[in-house]
Specification:
- This protein is an alpha/beta fold and 195 residues long.
- The chain has 9 helices and 4 strands, in the order ααβαβαβαβαααα.
- Strands 1-2-3-4 form a 4-stranded parallel beta sheet.
- Strand 1, helix 3 and strand 2 form a beta-alpha-beta unit.
- The relative contact order is 0.10.
- The model has no long low-confidence stretch (mean pLDDT 79).
């Protein structure tokens, strides 16, 4: 209950920063579905993605299907590019950190009402520092060429090494990134901002 009151106070103060949109707080997705009219002028719905029992992206997908007019913004405790991109593919309008200052939150919600999708990540989350030391220099080089679409044979030619050596490095990259295969490794590397 305290959390609900804190969230309500925060959003009330955010919307008093110059917004005139009506504010209604819901503690469950079911409440939000009942509250929102079927036909409305693209309401903005900010959902605390950390709400216990929310049901993850499946529940958000249900909400989007139930109210296709709504622009849904997820407030996330620790947003990652991977989850944010997945959410946007499902129809979410924006993913933003829940810990933003009131002024930044107001700005992000205003942007989310526009015509573009929005991902706001914590400062430095795309830097290589989180991945530093994970891969050797040669593995990083091979990964970069993989992400450029080169095959093992082409990569071997580029570095003047045997194809079997490239395969050995590729297996190591796949293992270190926790990927299923080459393609998945490239996807992970792009999502983490490694290349």
């Amino acid at each position: 209950m305290t959390e609900d009151l804190a969230i309500q106070r925060r959003f009330t103060s955010v919307f008093q920063l110059g917004g005139d949109a009506p504010l209604q707080i819901c503690t469950t997705l079911h409440e939000a579905e009942l509250l929102m009219p079927d036909k409305s002028d693209r309401p903005l719905l900010a959902v605390d993605f950390g709400t216990p029992g929310l049901g993850g992206l499946k529940a958000i997908t249900r909400l989007i299907k139930a109210r296709p007019n709504a622009r849904v913004v997820l407030l996330m405790q620790a947003p990652t590019l991977t989850v944010a991109r997945q959410a946007l593919r499902l129809g979410v309008t924006g993913c933003i950190p829940a810990h933003l200052s009131n002024a930044d939150l107001k700005a992000a919600l205003t942007l989310a009402q526009g015509r573009s999708d929005l991902i706001v990540l914590p400062q430095g989350s795309l830097s290589k520092s989180g991945n530093e030391g994970l891969l050797s220099r040669r593995e990083e080089q091979i990964l970069a060429l993989l992400c450029d679409g080169q095959q093992n044979k082409e990569i071997a030619h580029t570095f003047g090494i045997q194809e079997v050596t490239v395969k050995m490095h590729m297996r190591s990259v796949i293992r270190k990134l926790g990927a299923r295969n080459r393609t998945h490794a490239a996807m992970i590397a792009r999502d983490r901002g490694m290349v």
